[in-house]
Design a protein that fits this description.
The chain has 7 helices and 5 strands. Helix 1 packs parallel to helix 3 and helix 4 runs parallel beside helix 5.
Length: 132
Protein backbone atom coordinates (compact mmCIF):
# COMPACT_ATOMS: atom_id res chain seq x y z
CA UNK A 1 0.00 0.00 0.00
CA UNK A 2 1.02 3.61 -0.54
CA UNK A 3 1.27 5.73 2.60
CA UNK A 4 1.60 9.52 2.65
CA UNK A 5 3.56 11.16 5.48
CA UNK A 6 3.57 14.89 6.24
CA UNK A 7 4.28 16.82 9.43
CA UNK A 8 4.33 20.46 10.40
CA UNK A 9 7.69 21.62 11.77
CA UNK A 10 6.79 21.10 15.44
CA UNK A 11 5.65 17.51 14.72
CA UNK A 12 8.44 16.27 12.43
CA UNK A 13 10.45 14.68 15.26
CA UNK A 14 7.29 13.00 16.57
CA UNK A 15 6.56 11.53 13.14
CA UNK A 16 10.15 10.35 12.86
CA UNK A 17 9.85 8.62 16.26
CA UNK A 18 6.54 7.09 15.19
CA UNK A 19 8.15 5.69 12.05
CA UNK A 20 11.01 4.26 14.11
CA UNK A 21 8.51 2.53 16.39
CA UNK A 22 6.50 1.10 13.48
CA UNK A 23 9.40 0.52 11.10
CA UNK A 24 8.57 -3.18 10.78
CA UNK A 25 5.07 -2.48 9.50
CA UNK A 26 5.97 0.55 7.38
CA UNK A 27 8.86 -1.27 5.68
CA UNK A 28 6.31 -3.50 3.90
CA UNK A 29 4.73 -0.53 2.12
CA UNK A 30 5.63 2.34 -0.20
CA UNK A 31 6.11 5.59 1.70
CA UNK A 32 5.71 9.08 0.27
CA UNK A 33 6.55 12.30 2.09
CA UNK A 34 7.21 15.95 1.59
CA UNK A 35 10.92 16.73 1.33
CA UNK A 36 12.13 17.68 4.79
CA UNK A 37 9.85 15.23 6.58
CA UNK A 38 10.87 12.43 4.22
CA UNK A 39 14.56 13.14 4.72
CA UNK A 40 14.20 13.09 8.51
CA UNK A 41 12.28 9.80 8.45
CA UNK A 42 14.75 8.23 6.05
CA UNK A 43 17.73 9.28 8.18
CA UNK A 44 16.14 8.09 11.41
CA UNK A 45 14.74 4.77 10.19
CA UNK A 46 16.66 3.65 7.13
CA UNK A 47 13.31 3.27 5.36
CA UNK A 48 13.09 4.20 1.69
CA UNK A 49 10.92 7.28 1.24
CA UNK A 50 9.71 8.67 -2.08
CA UNK A 51 10.31 12.36 -1.40
CA UNK A 52 8.48 15.29 -2.94
CA UNK A 53 9.57 18.89 -2.72
CA UNK A 54 9.31 20.57 0.68
CA UNK A 55 5.66 21.19 1.51
CA UNK A 56 5.77 24.96 1.00
CA UNK A 57 7.71 24.58 -2.26
CA UNK A 58 5.05 22.43 -3.92
CA UNK A 59 5.37 19.10 -2.13
CA UNK A 60 1.85 19.42 -0.75
CA UNK A 61 0.51 19.93 -4.26
CA UNK A 62 2.50 16.92 -5.49
CA UNK A 63 0.99 14.80 -2.75
CA UNK A 64 -2.44 16.27 -3.51
CA UNK A 65 -2.07 15.19 -7.14
CA UNK A 66 -1.25 11.65 -6.00
CA UNK A 67 -4.37 11.68 -3.82
CA UNK A 68 -6.50 13.05 -6.67
CA UNK A 69 -5.35 10.15 -8.81
CA UNK A 70 -6.30 7.75 -6.00
CA UNK A 71 -2.69 6.62 -5.64
CA UNK A 72 -2.45 6.86 -1.84
CA UNK A 73 -4.10 4.34 0.47
CA UNK A 74 -3.50 6.05 3.80
CA UNK A 75 -2.38 9.50 4.91
CA UNK A 76 -0.69 10.63 8.12
CA UNK A 77 -0.42 14.40 8.44
CA UNK A 78 0.71 15.39 11.92
CA UNK A 79 -0.27 19.00 12.29
CA UNK A 80 0.38 21.69 14.85
CA UNK A 81 -2.91 23.59 15.16
CA UNK A 82 -1.70 25.76 18.05
CA UNK A 83 1.31 27.25 16.27
CA UNK A 84 0.58 27.43 12.57
CA UNK A 85 3.29 28.90 10.37
CA UNK A 86 2.56 30.57 7.08
CA UNK A 87 5.05 28.39 5.15
CA UNK A 88 3.56 25.09 6.33
CA UNK A 89 1.26 23.04 4.11
CA UNK A 90 -2.48 23.51 4.45
CA UNK A 91 -3.96 20.38 5.97
CA UNK A 92 -7.52 21.23 4.95
CA UNK A 93 -6.88 20.82 1.21
CA UNK A 94 -5.39 17.37 1.81
CA UNK A 95 -8.25 16.39 4.14
CA UNK A 96 -10.81 17.35 1.50
CA UNK A 97 -9.07 15.29 -1.17
CA UNK A 98 -8.80 12.28 1.15
CA UNK A 99 -12.50 12.57 1.95
CA UNK A 100 -13.40 12.60 -1.75
CA UNK A 101 -11.33 9.48 -2.43
CA UNK A 102 -12.07 7.60 0.83
CA UNK A 103 -8.46 7.62 1.96
CA UNK A 104 -8.01 6.98 5.71
CA UNK A 105 -6.44 10.07 7.30
CA UNK A 106 -4.73 10.75 10.64
CA UNK A 107 -3.87 14.19 12.01
CA UNK A 108 -2.49 13.06 15.37
CA UNK A 109 -0.30 10.29 16.74
CA UNK A 110 -3.20 8.39 18.36
CA UNK A 111 -5.10 8.03 15.09
CA UNK A 112 -1.90 7.32 13.18
CA UNK A 113 -1.21 4.40 15.49
CA UNK A 114 -4.72 3.01 14.96
CA UNK A 115 -4.33 3.23 11.18
CA UNK A 116 -0.91 1.56 11.14
CA UNK A 117 -2.13 -1.28 13.35
CA UNK A 118 -5.20 -1.67 11.11
CA UNK A 119 -2.92 -1.71 8.08
CA UNK A 120 -0.87 -4.51 9.66
CA UNK A 121 -4.02 -6.56 10.40
CA UNK A 122 -5.22 -6.22 6.81
CA UNK A 123 -8.14 -3.97 7.71
CA UNK A 124 -7.28 -1.57 4.88
CA UNK A 125 -7.03 -4.22 2.15
CA UNK A 126 -10.34 -2.94 0.80
CA UNK A 127 -8.35 -0.03 -0.68
CA UNK A 128 -6.92 -2.42 -3.30
CA UNK A 129 -10.44 -3.15 -4.54
CA UNK A 130 -11.48 0.50 -4.34
CA UNK A 131 -8.56 1.58 -6.54
CA UNK A 132 -9.43 -0.85 -9.33
Amino acid sequence: MNIGLVAHDAKKKLLQSFCIAYRGILSKHDLYATGTTGRMIEEGTGLTIHKYLAGHLGGSQQMGAQIENNQLDMMIFLRDPQNPKIHEPNVFDIIALCDVHNIPFATNIATAELLVKALDRGDLDWRELYKN
